[in-house]
Design goal:
Radius of gyration: 20 Å
Strand order of the largest sheet: 2-1-3
Largest sheet: 3 strands, antiparallel
Number of helices: 4
Strand content: 5-15%
Helix content: 55-70%
Low-confidence stretches: none
Mean pLDDT: 84
Shape: rod-shaped
Order of helices and strands: HEEHHEH
Number of strands: 3
Length: 149
């Protein structure tokens, strides 16, 4: 059933991952080393961040069409949550390693991109809740179908 409510939350999760390409993680007052050479630290600055963001968005979209395989859809939801957790962790680690080379006169301000993975975690968790709820609803109906055949 593609019209179930979990589809809305999976779509919102995919939108959050897609919006990370438009919203930076951090900006600096002046250009600096490596990640802040253009004064903006975003997803495209490191292959790991790019890969996690693309994979999270694509898996959220793929999970939408796995509505007939609820167990697989649920596993994909958990995998999306893991990627959404890893994204800010890896971002923080990359940025703290690079910040050792940044001079103290450069001020760095965090942006909304650093907090968007939290929204992805929330939306994917809500989608998983409704996938489980849907499974509990369908299981008794499947037993009835088996008895009637």
């Amino acid at each position: 059933m593609i019209q179930r409510i979990q589809i809305i939350f999976l779509l919102l999760t995919a939108i959050v991952f897609g919006s990370l390409f438009m919203v930076p993680f951090a900006i600096s007052s002046q250009p600096s080393v490596q990640f802040l050479s253009d004064s903006v630290f975003d997803v495209t600055d490191h292959p790991a961040l790019l890969g996690l963001t693309l994979a999270g968005g694509i898996l959220a979209l793929v999970s939408i069409f796995m509505f007939q395989k609820r167990k697989l859809q649920l596993k994909l939801g958990y995998f999306i949550i893991v990627m959404a957790i890893l994204l800010p962790v890896i971002t923080f680690l990359l940025f703290t390693n690079a910040s050792a080379e940044v001079s103290s006169s450069v001020e760095v301000y965090d942006q909304a991109g650093m907090y968007l993975p939290v929204a992805a975690i929330i939306f994917a968790s809500i989608a998983n809740y409704y996938i489980k709820k849907d499974g509990k609803l369908v299981k008794p109906m499947d037993r009835l179908r088996e008895l009637l055949t």
